[in-house]
Design a protein that fits this description.
The structure is a homotetramer. Chain A is built from ten helices and no strands. Chain A is an all-alpha fold. In chain A, helix 2 packs parallel to helix 5 and helix 6 packs antiparallel against helix 7. Chain A is elongated and about 65 Å long. The N and C termini of chain A lie far apart (about 40 Å). Chains in contact: A-B, A-D, B-C, C-D.
């Protein structure tokens, strides 16, 4: 067996490469951020209940429904972002500093997700809902821009890409990332018309992605 | 040494395979979720004590006993879930999108565990205990469904399983997962009869699993 | 090169073995638990200050000194526990279920550390200090018992140990773990005489360990 | 292929060495600490708003601008620290106890970052800003000292360094770490003149690092 083949075998089997530690660190950040979303689910304080009875607690838990909606949508969206992140790193075999800092920007925005999630949970059923929902969808616009930046730093001169990634794949991947931008921008603007539209679009987005994921073959990007 | 043997040797030693990054991400989520349970243990505020004395603080800490019970039961249950998750991934050597999203659903439900844990801690000794306990055991019903789904996506056409997993093993494993469903469902319903029954069943479950784990040879599933 | 030598080479280089995923999960739990200690450091609320001035904030920060002490002692102690955990796993090459659950018990107790840390921070300078300090040192007694249990499950029949670990090493290691037990027990009891004694002993312990770590060659165990 | 070459190939590909578990643990701590910064972003409570309207919530969110500034600066600074940490470990191939505990000190200080970040967020626009900003920049002074200590334990006798690291590289690296010390010390002192100067220096520091990172070739150190 030649040395090159051994190299390739080991890399294939171990999945290790120059970008390994960046990937491991990014995975850690994604895993912590997605788990911190649980703090969005608040235990109603006894003093906030109408009565400390089965009915009183059931009602208080029911009235928190915006929390549950925001939690599920944020969790599913971060999960898809992680899959997407993974798919970018599968095509990349080394890193440079623009790529490193585009990834840093992306991670920063991902860790912010629990903040607007709680904002939506708190304000969705109040007259201030428009701002909460605009911030929520607006963050997804920024995350989409960070993904485009990350992909651009990786692919624009093909310097960081695996040689076996075809130009057609680069194009398809770029297009699958672009597509989120106008949709989330629309969702942000529609918040001022009707905040429930914003949340509906964000919810439909992750459901659509999950169900089309297999067929498209290409990978979704938040 | 042939190339295939080297492949096998490296895979055996390194434990790396196509599902490696999913496993690492899942482990991260399990590790964070299990550690966040500590927030269920609250430091009594000085103003809530009868008197800021040894006796006053001792009494306040004693009265938090539902927290300690809920903490231990949730910790042990998530730990068993992790062992169980590990055992499923040991039999799987590649992933597809249904498997990926069944795993995502499972992780989402696991990260939720700290929420009903705190609910039980807060309300177990109040008249609202039935709801708190029903939500607690109800989450374990949902987690059990997610495990069944994960195992089904992995095994129903055997496409993702290691070739050395026998049909008998698949059957035994499926059965060991099913078994939690009726028990947790019963625990959920019994909450409305007596909430302490629910907590007792959840506690007995993890103790039973740990003590039968070695003998059964097969692996428990929450 | 023979196949066995390749196996050994790969294992040496990659550090992978049957216990790899348990070790990675444990590391994750240690890393999260040690980082959550920061929540012990509280930002004084503006309303709690004598005056919102440089002097007012400086005084409020100064009065939180028990937090800083408890934070540093808990951080250093968990760090030493992690080193100790690492040293046990270096001598172990496979796991069984008692070992797995002894490790689970240890992890559970490690994740609890932020709780008595905050208790000490809140109550060290109050008349209720004895209870807070007794719980703090008492947890370290329990953690010591869990370490003894872990080492016992690993070494009592030598079934899980690397063959190259000598009986003398097993004895030395066991002794280095035992030693913490009487000291932390004493620290727990002394809390009722003088709580500052408890904290002093816990502080001296980690300082002693760090400075003797290199000379002893053997590894400390909390 | 000789055994040595295989060793080298495997190590190169897998990135595994004696320091692997320390690196993985450190990465875990960095990843959790950087993600916990999100708790600095607080959801305004409805009762704190002038009015629960779009304008009321927008104003409350706008008035939290010190949080956003502190969050971004802390995130970017921890990210650069991580890159820096990574670059030190790339030159090191084994560890000893001083190195291990210098790394522990560094990690402890990194986990503290969310505390002064929240302090700045809370007090930047109050008369108590000087203390908050001095603590913030002061922590970066301490972290810089820890980095110098870590590099010194690694390089002073060259015992832990990869043999292929040249004395010139050691010198350049040491200088790139020293440079942060006088700047952060100045930032700390200037807090008492004008707190905004402190924050500006901390902000300029990470922007400068990111933009010079590529050209310098050498790696920044906080």
């Amino acid at each position: 067996m030649s040395e090159e083949k051994l190299d390739a075998t080991i890399e294939k089997e171990t999945g290790r490469k120059e970008t390994g530690r960046i990937e491991a660190f990014s995975d850690g950040v994604f895993a912590v951020a997605i788990t911190l979303l649980v703090f969005d689910l608040k235990v109603p304080t006894p003093s906030a209940l109408e009565a400390i009875t089965v009915a009183g607690l059931a009602k208080a838990l029911y009235q928190q429904w915006p929390s549950y909606l925001a939690f599920v949508t944020s969790f599913a969206t971060i999960l898809i972002m992680w899959v997407s992140h993974h798919s970018i790193f599968k095509m990349v075999y080394k890193s440079d500093s623009p790529f490193l800092f585009a990834n840093g920007l992306l991670l920063m925005l991902v860790t912010v997700v629990p903040f607007p999630t709680s904002l939506v949970s708190e304000y969705l059923t109040t007259p201030a809902a428009a701002i909460a929902c605009a911030v929520y969808a607006g963050l997804f616009v920024l995350i989409n821009i960070a993904y485009n930046l990350l992909w651009w730093t990786a692919s624009h001169k093909r310097t960081l890409l695996n040689p076996d990634v075809s130009p057609a794949q680069v194009k398809i991947h770029a297009r699958s990332i672009y597509v989120g931008f106008p949709i989330y921008l629309l969702a942000t603007l529609l918040a001022f018309l009707n905040p429930y539209l914003t949340i509906s679009i964000c919810t439909v987005m992750w459901i659509y992605w999950i169900f089309t994921f297999a067929e498209r073959g290409s990978i979704p990007a938040a």
